[in-house]
Structure formats: C-alpha cells, structure tokens
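Quick one from the shared queue. A colleague (R.T.) flagged Microsomal glutathione S-transferase 1 as missing a structural entry in our internal table.

Convert sequence to structure tokens.
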Amino acid sequence: MSLELLTLSNPVFKSFTFWAGVLVVKMLAMSLLTAMQRFKTKTFANPEDLMSPKLKVKFDDPNVERVRRAHRNDLENILPFFAIGLLYTLTNPSAFLAINLFRAVGISRIVHTLVYAVVVVPQPARALSFFVALIATAYMAFQVIAAAAF
C-alpha cells in the first residue's frame, strides 16, 4: 500500500473524495427534508417542538415516515460505501472502473431519494436505484477482500 494513492493527484481518490462529499451533503439534506415534512404536516415527535398547545406529539405521519425511512436507508448504504470506497482506492484499481463505480453509487443514491422521498415513483424505480449502489459497493468489497487475502 502506498500513501500516494490517498492524494488528490490520484484520479481514483479524487473521484472518491468528490462523491463522498456529494453524499454527505445529500445525507445532510435528508435532515432538512425531514424537518420540512414535519413543519408541513405539523408532525412533531417531542412535546417541546409543538408550535401550538392544540398540537399533539405524533409519530405516524406517512410523509414524515417516508422521508425518515429514506434517510435510514442512506445510513445503511452510504456509510458502508464510505469505508469500502476508501479501502478500494487503496487496492489501486483501474481508474476507469473505480470512477464509474463511485459515480454509480452516488447517482443511484440520489435517484433513490428522489423516487422514494421527493417525487414518489412506483417500483421498480426505487429497487433499481437501490440495487445499482448495492452491487457496486459489494463489488468493491469483494475486490478489497481479494486484495487483502492474496
């Protein structure tokens, strides 16, 4: 392993850094989207957040819960990408393949949120976007395992 792989002069690491940054911003935006849904539907989970004595604590608004599920799905899928993408960079992969894998994960996670929590689109849109990122991340994981095992 060479630390030269972890510099912005390495196009693979530069691409990983870019897409990791995009996905961090995307995940932060999910918190804002959740808050927007809470205010729009007047659905608050804590008594101190209630904007009026007429409101009640509520945990079951479908719009809020849809955004929360999309956010949780991000946590379950983007966080492993951060770890495995960095390790994959250290295997010195083909720049073309690695850059396109990072793009596939980034774009498909953005599409997943759009079709799940912003403009609800019927299946298989969500499943396709989910599996593109999952397969790309799994491929990188297997490549990291193979590089470390031999």
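The two ends are 13 Å apart (CA to CA).
The chain has a mean pLDDT of 92.
Added to the table.
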